[in-house]
Each structure stands twice: as structure tokens, then as C-alpha cells.
């Protein structure tokens, strides 16, 4: 089975100007508008093929939405449509300072697991991570709009690192809540 | 590939005949059926004016009974009277231990099947078959009450149900001869019933504690769109477990030993009764008849609260997780809604209220609200509300992954992804000359495959031998709007289509379903063929209608005369065949119409998306 027209750019799909800074409210309302056209609930009495197609189309819209909504995925998508080579998932950064910072963050997260006020500690780290993520996003925007795709790629990769650490932190917070 | 019938919401086409549709809440303890009549959703009673149908089936030596009568046979005929069968849906034999002693039946293993069956005087039955008895009883009630055949139903399932449990529910409906419009998550159904009731848009949390399952869903309501942001829960936690805890207490207090099936039923029934009494009263009497004597005791609400506090606390942990997954803080929740019979318990109300910092809402009957929401959705899906803007956007409750080296689980689709969703991932071979690869599909959040749910094992075979690491095997997971998944795997370098063998780890196979269908008393051989033919005829008519509508709209614009003639040729032979052909033949002809129109459909797809964009530009002008 073919997938729905892959030539369609996600930004065009939602009627948004391509760029990192997005009108998220508009993205959300466009997403709902497209789903109200393509969602399988609209094709319950249609032929089997139309049903299959609607599942594929609605999946595609969801994927497009997910890609644009998430800052890291959005930055990678921008690089992709800009023709830049994507950073490999397994690739590590060569920025030694950044690496040190990441290591320290990981250690802090491990340390706060044993801390007395673990949840509060984790929330402090969390706000630092959010802060760091927006700094990196700002770096990405500057590089991307200056057409410096190499630097943009580095920023995008760092954003991904920070996001992963954030996920680790969330896992820890789940554990703390369970306890 | 395209939708042949694209219409914007509100653009109703032909006048439409009212279709009979129903919403079914297939519960652990009780089941209900509801329908929209004269614009209002209502639960349909039986002839004795009772709304709740106890989810109990008795396989007596004379006949099979469902509901109140079956319930009354519980203690006298415990081994042939099946309660709480919902807890067994989609479960394998190995899972039974994990369910503890809740199930006092005799399970049997049937060759080559992982599906447990309960042994009764009428034979061995799987959970799917037992559930289909309940569905049949409800459908019959609806048809009597509505005065005609149902076009389709919406069946609710716990939001936290995994793929195997959902598939089992669908299979039960197939066995009952029902056309399922949609499997709808119970908390989402409840939100629909509430959301249409109040006009308030915003964030709501639905806390649904039933007889055997617990769900929490966080939704955003916005002008008829119900968007689930996150869901969580436990598909093996509910009122039954509280009965179990109190039953244990009774056994200890009364000093009962040697529990036979009849006595353990009696204990559980006494526990449930005391639990229900404690909803209003602060103390409840308990009475057990044991070895020609009677034990009398009493339990206070405080004692009961202590017995269940840990269970309730576990639900609150799930609530916090769901909020975190939804990226919503607790004070943003506009309403917290209670659903399910177990939310009548005062301790549940108090603890949920404390967590959310507000009085929970329970103005709709917690037993009925799910069925009412399902009825509203069924009415819409049947096409009775062409102008409705209602749209339900749900999520996948548990991550879907694949087994990688070392028994680790790599996630392909994360939990709480909006459905339908499709994701592909590439894998490669690790040995030179390898021509096959096995794919193990799992569901769950844990790192180790063995801690997650095994859903299916596939073998991709027949791709050409290559050096290690050169093959590119693309595995695609697709989850539909019912939360059900399909998987395909393909070696993309060779482009060779390889065969995939699917072996469901937990579910019934298609052939098992078919043989059950054949064996069931309601379907003689002739009936089955008749039904298959009717299904193909309906499908053929849909295909023709879709093609005609499309051709009328843009056939001349998008197709050459030769292409048009080709499509018409296949369409016409299908039309002629409808009245005279067998099911298989119709299926072939439908396929040939699809093949002939493939190219046309692709063109329409592109046009449709462009139209969607054009629509957006009009929006912008209006802004």
C-alpha cells in the first residue's frame, strides 16, 4: 500500500510558514481541522479501501503534528527539509564543555534519587533543563536563519541530548511517586 | 490511494434514513446497552424494567442463561456460572496465576492454543465466547426495544486495555454477529456523556474505577472535539480486588478453612454486600453459613477503609503519572469526573478529591455514564448526526516495541501517541547470508521484553542473502482508531516481497474464531455463508457508490477516456454480479475495481490535500 503523498511538506499541510518559531495554537487548531476531515470515524460506513486510506491519512496527519509540536523533532525536520545531513542518533558531540555539563547533570540526577527531599531536588534540575533547552533552541534559530546548517545541526543534536536527560529525570520522578 | 468520499464536517450530502445503533458497556460486574432515541441518549431496560445486566453466564446442562437468572445460580452451581469474565479477556494461561485466586473455575488447556478455556457441563469455553453471550443478550434487548436490526454498535473497553484484550473484545462481537463501528475507551465515553451535558470547554480528568479495571484519562474539550492527552491505569484492579481483600478478612475472622467453590462464592458475595452497605452505613453485618452453622460478624467502614487504602493509593499514583504525561498540572484540571460503580465508595471519593483539590463530579449515574457516551458516539457513527462536529481523538495506552538483541525492548510507538498512528523502523541482519529474520512484537513500558506483554511473533523470510548489516528490514507498526495494531515487515534493498507468518501469542486465531462461529448454535453453516455473502454485497455497493460519486465529481477532469472506460468496465461487471454472484466471486470483482482505480485514487488524494490547504487559505482571509 502506498503512503499518502509524501511530497507534502508538514508546514504546508498545516498552513504554517516553515520555521522554528511556530504558532502552536494555530498548529493545534489546524490539526483538529484535518482530523475532522480524515479521521476514521468519518468513514465508518465507507468501503474497506476508503477505511484503510483514512487510517493512513489520519496517521500521517498525527505524525506531522507530532513532528512539528516537539521542538527537537521540529528542529530535525527543518534540517531535513533544508537539505542538511541529519545527526545520527548514536553520534556523540565533540563539544567537551557540553559533554562535561551532561555528565554532571546525569550525576546530579542519580544523586537526587538518594536525597532527602528528592522530588524537590528533581524539580530544581527540571527547571534548569527547561532553561537549557530554550537557550539551545535560541541558538538553533539564529544558526538556521543565518543559513548556517552545520551549527544548526550541532544545536539540534544538543537539544536532543537535553531532552533525553529530561526523560531520564521523568523516569526518576515516576519512581519517586510510586514509592 | 485516496478517500473517494471526502466531505468537510457539516457538508451533509444525501438525506439519510435513521439507522439503529447502540452503545454497549461490557463491564466486569454489569453490562448495559444504550441508544439515542428522539435525540436523547438513554439506557435500554429489559422486560422487567431493569437496566443493569449482571455480566454472569450460566452454562447449565439444559440451557445457557445470562444475567439475573445466571447470577442467582452462583452459589448453587459455582463451576458452571462464570462471573467477571472481563478479567480473562486477552489473557493467556500463564496470566492466570497473576490474577490470583479470583477465578474459582476449572481451566483447561486446548492443544496448540494459548487461550485458557473454562470447563463447564456444556463444554469448554474461552472468555471470548462467554463475553459473546453477554453481547448477544444485550443486542437482543436493544433490537426488541428499538424494533429493528442494529446497523452497528460501539463497544467500550478500558482505556488501559492492551492490544490482545482489545482484539478479544472485537472477536467476541464478531462471534455475537455484531457490526462494531468502534471500540471506544470507557473514560472517553464518559467524557462524551459529561461534555455534551455541560457546555464547559477545558481540561477534564476522568477517574474510572470499575469492577475489575481502573482507568484515568486526561482530556481537553474544545467545541465538540474530545482530545485525550494522556491515559493510564491498571487493567487488573477494581472492585473485585476490594471484595477479595474483604473476603480474606472474613475468612480470617470466621476462621474458615477448606474453602470449596460454593463457599468462596458465598464469602465474596457477602464481602460485596458489606462493601455496598458501607457506602451509606458506617457498619455492616456479615453472615456466612458454614458446615450447618452460621457465623455472624460485622465490619466498620474504618476497618474496610484500612483494607482497601493501598489499592486506592495505587490508583492515585496512576493519576499523577497521567497528569505528568499530559504535561498538565493538577490545578489546571477544570473538572474531575467519577465513573464506575467502585467510585461510590466514600474513601475513593475522599482520596480523589484530596489529590485534585476539588469536589469530584458524579452527577451522572456512574454505572450508566459510559454506556450513554457510547450511545452518543454510535448514533454519530451511524450517520444520524450529519451536522455534528463531535470528534473523539484518543491515544495509545501502552508503548509498542520490538525485541532486540539481548531480550531488550525497543519502543517503536510511545504510549500516549495520538491514534491512528503509524511508525516504521529499520533493522538489519547480523549474520552473513542471513535470509530470514524473526520479529517479536511487545507492548509495555519496561526495558526487558520478558516484563512486557508479548503480542505476536513474525518471521520475515525469503530475502536474498547479503553480508551482515547490508539488509534493510523495515518494520512498520500501524495502530487504528480502535487501538488495534497491524505489523508489516519488508526488506527494502531487494524489493522482494517476503512472506510474513503471524502467530498471535495470546489471541484466538482466525480459524479458531471461524470454527467457534460454526459451532455456535446461532449460526448454522447456511447462516454463515449467507452472512458472508451479505457482507460482500454491502461492500460491493459501497465501492460502486464511492466510485460513482467520485467519477461524477472529477472523473472527466482527472482521467483520460481510456482510463475512464477501464474503470467503468470493472465497475459495471461488479454491479451486474451483486445480485447473482457468490461471496468469493464478489470479493474478486471488488478487488479488480480497486486495482483498476488505484491510479485515479492516487490523483484524488493529492487533490484532496490541496483542497485542505485551499480551505486553510480561505480561513486566513476570514481572519
How big is the Rg of chain B? 26 Å
Helix content of chain B: 25-40%
- N- and C-termini, Cα separation of chain A: 47 Å
Q: Could you tell me the number of beta strands of chain A?
A: 0
Mean model confidence by pLDDT of chain B: 86
Class inferred from helices and paired strands of chain B: alpha+beta
For the record, the CATH architecture of the domain at 400-509 in chain B stands as Sandwich
Strand content of chain B: 15-25%
Q: Per the principal axes of the C-alpha atoms, what is the gross shape of chain A? A: globular
Category from helices, strands and their pairing of chain A: mainly alpha
Morphology of chain B:
globular
For the largest beta-sheet of chain A, the strand count, sense and barrel status come to: none
- Assembly annotation: heterodimer
- Total number of helices of chain B: 13
Describe this structure as you would to a colleague.
The complex is a heterodimer of chains A (179) and B (623). Chain A has 179 residues and is mostly helical. Chain A folds into two domains: 10-69, Orthogonal Bundle (Helix Hairpins); 96-178, Monooxygenase (Up-down Bundle). Chain A has seven helices and no strands. Chain A has helices at 10-13, 24-38, 48-69, 71-81, 96-114, 118-145, 149-178. In chain A, helix 2 runs antiparallel to helix 3. Chain A is globular. In chain A, 34% of the residues are buried. The mean pLDDT of chain A is 85. By secondary structure, chain B is an alpha+beta fold. Among the domains of chain B are: 239-306, Actin, Chain A, domain 4 (Alpha-Beta Complex), CATH 3.90.640.10; 400-509, Substrate Binding Domain Of DNAk, Chain A, domain 1; 524-622, Substrate Binding Domain Of Dnak, Chain:A, Domain 2, CATH 1.20.1270. Chain B has helices at 68-72, 127-146, 163-175, 186-197, 239-254, 261-280, 301-326, 346-356, 369-381, 510-519, 525-558, 561-578, 583-622; strands at residues 21-25, 30-37, 40-43, 53-54, 57-59, 64-66, 81-82, 107-108, 117-120, 123-126, 152-157, 180-185, 202-209, 214-222, 225-234, 283-290, 293-300, 335-339, 391-393, 400-404, 408-413, 421-427, 436-443, 453-461, 473-479, 485-491, 499-504. In chain B, the strands form seven sheets. In chain B, strands 1, 2, 3, 4, 11 and 12 form a six-stranded mixed β-sheet that branches. In chain B, strands 18-13-14-15-19 form a five-stranded mixed β-sheet, sandwiched between helices. In chain B, helix 4 crosses helix 9 (369-381) and helix 11 (525-558) packs across helix 13 (583-622). The longest helix of chain B has 40 residues, at 583-622. Chain B starts with 20 loop residues before the first strand and ends with a helix.
Amino acid at each position: 500500500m502506498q503512503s499518502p503523498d509524501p511530497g507534502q511538506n508538514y508546514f504546508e499541510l498545516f498552513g504554517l510558514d516553515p520555521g522554528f518559531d511556530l504558532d502552536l495554537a494555530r498548529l493545534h487548531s489546524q490539526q483538529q481541522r484535518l482530523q475532522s476531515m480524515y479521521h476514521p470515524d468519518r468513514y465508518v460506513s465507507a468501503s474497506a479501501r476508503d477505511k484503510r486510506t483514512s487510517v493512513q491519512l489520519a496517521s500521517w496527519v498525527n505524525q506531522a503534528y507530532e513532528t512539528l509540536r516537539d521542538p527537537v523533532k521540529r528542529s530535525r525536520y527543518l534540517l531535513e527539509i533544508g537539505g542538511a545531513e541529519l545527526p545520527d542518533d548514536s553520534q556523540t558531540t565533540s563539544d567537551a564543555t557540553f559533554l562535561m555539563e551532561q555528565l554532571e547533570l546525569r550525576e546530579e540526577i542519580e544523586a537526587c534519587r538518594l536525597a532527602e527531599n528528592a522530588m524537590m531536588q528533581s524539580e530544581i534540575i527540571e527547571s534548569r533543563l527547561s532553561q537549557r533547552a530554550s537557550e539551545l533552541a535560541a541558538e538553533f534559530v539564529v544558526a538556521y536563519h543565518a543559513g548556517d546548517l552545520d551549527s544548526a545541526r550541532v544545536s539540534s543534536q544538543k537539544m536532543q541530548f537535553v531532552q533525553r536527560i529530561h526523560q531520564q529525570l521523568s523516569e526518576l520522578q515516576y519512581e519517586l511517586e510510586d514509592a | 490511494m485516496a478517500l473517494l468520499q471526502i466531505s468537510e464536517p457539516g457538508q451533509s450530502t444525501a438525506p439519510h434514513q435513521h439507522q439503529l445503533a447502540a452503545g454497549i458497556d461490557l463491564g466486569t460486574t454489569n453490562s448495559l446497552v444504550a441508544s439515542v432515541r428522539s435525540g436523547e441518549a438513554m439506557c435500554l431496560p429489559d422486560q422487567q424494567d431493569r437496566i443493569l445486566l449482571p455480566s454472569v453466564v450460566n452454562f447449565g446442562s439444559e440451557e445457557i442463561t445470562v444475567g439475573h437468572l445466571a447470577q442467582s445460580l452462583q452459589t448453587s452451581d459455582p463451576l458452571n456460572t462464570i462471573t467477571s469474565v472481563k478479567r480473562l479477556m486477552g489473557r493467556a494461561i500463564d496470566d492466570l496465576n497473576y490474577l490470583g485466586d479470583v477465578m474459582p473455575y476449572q481451566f483447561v488447556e486446548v492443544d496448540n492454543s494459548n487461550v485458557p478455556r473454562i470447563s463447564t457441563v456444556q463444554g469448554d469455553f474461552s472468555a471470548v465466547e462467554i463475553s459473546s453471550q453477554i453481547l448477544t443478550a444485550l443486542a437482543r434487548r436493544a433490537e426488541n426495544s428499538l424494533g429493528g436490526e442494529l446497523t452497528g454498535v460501539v463497544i467500550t473497553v478500558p482505556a488501559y486495555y492492551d492490544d490482545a484484550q482489545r482484539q478479544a473484545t472485537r472477536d467476541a462481537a464478531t462471534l455475537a454477529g455484531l457490526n462494531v463501528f468502534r471500540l471506544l475507551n470507557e473514560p472517553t465515553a464518559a467524557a462524551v456523556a459529561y461534555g455534551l451535558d455541560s457546555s464547559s470547554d477545558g481540561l477534564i480528568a476522568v477517574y474510572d474505577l470499575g469492577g475489575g479495571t481502573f482507568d484515568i484519562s486526561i482530556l481537553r474539550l474544545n467545541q465538540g472535539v474530545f482530545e485525550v492527552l494522556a491515559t493510564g491505569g491498571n487493567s487488573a484492579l477494581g472492585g473485585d480486588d476490594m471484595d477479595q481483600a474483604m473476603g480474606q478478612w472474613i475468612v480470617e475472622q470466621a476462621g474458615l478453612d477448606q474453602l470449596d467453590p460454593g463457599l468462596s462464592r458465598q464469602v465474596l458475595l457477602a464481602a460485596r454486600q458489606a462493601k455496598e452497605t458501607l457506602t451509606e452505613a458506617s457498619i455492616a453485618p456479615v453472615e456466612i453459613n458454614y458446615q450447618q452453622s452460621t457465623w455472624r460478624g460485622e465490619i466498620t467502614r474504618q476497618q474496610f477503609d484500612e483494607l482497601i487504602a493501598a489499592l486506592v493509593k495505587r490508583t492515585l499514583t496512576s493519576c499523577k503519572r497521567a497528569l505528568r504525561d499530559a504535561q498538565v498540572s493538577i490545578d489546571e484540571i477544570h473538572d474531575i469526573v467519577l465513573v464506575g460503580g467502585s467510585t461510590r465508595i466514600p474513601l475513593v471519593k475522599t482520596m480523589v478529591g484530596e489529590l485534585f483539590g476539588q469536589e469530584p463530579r458524579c452527577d451522572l449515574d456512574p454505572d450508566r455514564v459510559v454506556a450513554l457516551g457510547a450511545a452518543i458516539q454510535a448514533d454519530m457513527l451511524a450517520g444520524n448526526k450529519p451536522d455534528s462536529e463531535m470528534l473523539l481523538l484518543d491515544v495509545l495506552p501502552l508503548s509498542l516495541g520490538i525485541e532486540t538483541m539481548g531480550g531488550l525492548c525497543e519502543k517503536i510507538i510511545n504510549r500516549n501517541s495520538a491514534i491512528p498512528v503509524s511508525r516504521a523502523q529499520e533493522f538489519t541482519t547480523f549474520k552473513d547470508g542471513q535470509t530470514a529474520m524473526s520479529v517479536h512484537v511487545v507492548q509495555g513500558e519496561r526495558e526487558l521484553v520478558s516484563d512486557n506483554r508479548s503480542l505476536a511473533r513474525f518471521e520475515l523470510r525469503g530475502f536474498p542473502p547479503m553480508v551482515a548489516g547490508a539488509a534493510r528490514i523495515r518494520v512498520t507498526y500501524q495502530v487504528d482508531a480502535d487501538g488495534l495494531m497491524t505489523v508489516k515487515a519488508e526488506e527494502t534493498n531487494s524489493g522482494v516481497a517476503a512472506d510474513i507468518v503471524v502467530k498471535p501469542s495470546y489471541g484466538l486465531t482466525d480459524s479458531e474464531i471461524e470454527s467457534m462461529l460454526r459451532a455456535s448454535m446461532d449460526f448454522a453453516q447456511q447462516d454463515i455463508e449467507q452472512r458472508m455473502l451479505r457482507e460482500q454485497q454491502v461492500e460491493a455497493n459501497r465501492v460502486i457508490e464511492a466510485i460513482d460519486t467520485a467519477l461524477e465529481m472529477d472523473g472527466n477532469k482527472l482521467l483520460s477516456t481510456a482510463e475512464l472506460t477501464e474503470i467503468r468496465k470493472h465497475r459495471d461487471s461488479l454491479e451486474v454480479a451483486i445480485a447473482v454472484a457468490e461471496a468469493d466471486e464478489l470479493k474478486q470483482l471488488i478487488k479488480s475495481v480497486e486495482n483498476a482505480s488505484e491510479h485515479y485514487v492516487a490523483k484524488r488524494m493529492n487533490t484532496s490535500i490541496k483542497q485542505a490547504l485551499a480551505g486553510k487559505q480561505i480561513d486566513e482571509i476570514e481572519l
